[in-house]
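In the present case, backbone shapes were mapped to integers, as reproduced here:
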Amino acid sequence: MASHWKGGYRIVDPVNLERFYSQEDALSSMWITATEELSKESEAQLDVIKIILKKLPPREADFVELYFFKKIRQTVIAKMFNVSQPTICYRLNRAVLRIKYLLQLPEIEEGELEEAMKKVLSDPMDVKIMVGMVETTCQSEVAKNLNVSQGLVRHRFFRNVNRLSNVQGMEKYLKIFDLVVKNLNVMRDVYRAEWNEPVIHLVA
């Protein structure tokens, strides 16, 4: 299993994280003293992970760091954040899926996708739909943000994908949209009532 060291913790390939989230004892293999140096390649990969964590809901990113990198048990994290252990387990699983999706996305500059779509799609609504689907992977979320029906979002999205498949130079963006189709709703942040409760930090 691929892994890299940083600041006393082993940074495990997110593709392999999913099999750990329900096996807390397995986390003993993720801890080590901060005496090993990272290669340049490992440093670069760690930077990518850090950027991705910033794209997750803040508490979800906290859970990933505490559980996978700092070897804190789910039950302890649940008490720290005043939520149930199943909530922690659920959020860790969602975080793994989000990270896997974000890791697979081709690298593009901020605003690049929107500008590329503007050159091909004449309707601003279509541009917003394509960009929104990449950001949220959720038809209902995009529909809500644009004040249109979910059916319209779905129709326009697949119609535009088909149109882009006939345009030269769109290969990179078509790969992105293909990933969206394979990961529908993975970036949607499901509302849970417990998350509005005050955070209680327990001090031993």
